[in-house]
Amino acid sequence: MTTPALPAHPFGRALCAMITPFTDSGALDLDGAQSLADRLITQGCDGLVLSGTTGESPTTSDAEKSALVRAVREAVDGRASIVAGVGTSDTPHTVELARAAEKAGADGLLVVTPYYSRPPQDAVEAHFREVADASGLPVMLYDIPGRTGTRIEPDTMIRLAGHPRIVAVKDCAYDLLGSQKVMERTEFAYYAGCDEQVLALYAVGGAGYVSTVANALPHWFRAILDAFDAGRTAEAARLQQRVVRLVELMMASGLPGTVTAKALLDGLGLPAGPVRAPLRPAAPETVDALLDEYERLMYTSD
User: Fold this and answer.
1) Positions at the binding site for pyruvate
2) Would you give the end-to-end CA distance of the chain in angstroms?
3) Over the stretch 90-106, which tens digit does the pLDDT of each residue have?
C-alpha cells in the first residue's frame, strides 16, 4: 500500500486530545462524545485525537475504541480529521487496533512507543514500521518518554521518516534541540503535545499542537497560531503566557491531565463523566481552582 502526498499539516493544525466521556455508571457515553466533538470543532479544532493518554486508552476496550471512532466520525461529518490512538506495548495488538481504526473510519493513527518493556531503538523502529505497514492510514508517532520509559531517539526518527505513511510526531519529549534536529532533516509534521510549548514549537516550524487543555478552551491555542501566522507575534506570546496558569493546574499539578480535564468539563456542565480506575476524581478544591482560573481567562483581560 502507498499513501498519497500529504500537506504540511497532515491532520490539521489545531488538534484536541479529546477526553472519552463516560456515563455516571462508567459506561462509554457516545452521545456525550458526539456533543463534545461538535463543540470542539465549532470552536476552533480542525482535528481530534481519540483514545490517547487523555482519552484513557489503557482502560477502554478494543470494541469501545472502535465504537468511539465511529460515533465521532458521524458527528464530525468531514469537518475535521480523526486520529485514533492505537498504541500498546504489544506489536500484534497494536496492528489489530490499527486495522480496526481504519475500518471504523479514522483518518490517521497515533502510535505511542511500546511501554514497560523498554525495547532498544532497533526494536522501537521495527515496531513502528510494522504498524505503519498494517493499514493505509498515515501515522503520527507519539514520543512521550516520561510515560513510556523509552525515547524515540532523533536518529530513529530520521530513519522512520523514510516510511511513506509515517508523517508526523506528537512531541512530548521535552527536547527542543532534538526536535529541531529531526525537523531540519525530515519533512515530519511536528505537533506540540505539551501545552506550554505550543508557540515555541510552532515558531521553529512545527505543524501545530495536540492539546489536552483544548478540551475546555478549544479556541485559545488556535488563536495563538492564528496570531503568529498573521505576524502578530507579541499577541501570540501574550496569549501563550496568559494560559500558563491553567496549563500548570491541569498538567503539572501532580494529577494526570485526564483527571483535571474531566473535572473542569464536569464543572462547566460539559460531557465528561468519571475517570476509570486506577485514576480517581479530582478533589473539590482542585475543581474550584480550575474553574476559578477558567473564569479568569474567559472574562478578564489581565
Assistant:
1) 54, 210
2) 52
3) 999 999 999 999 999 99
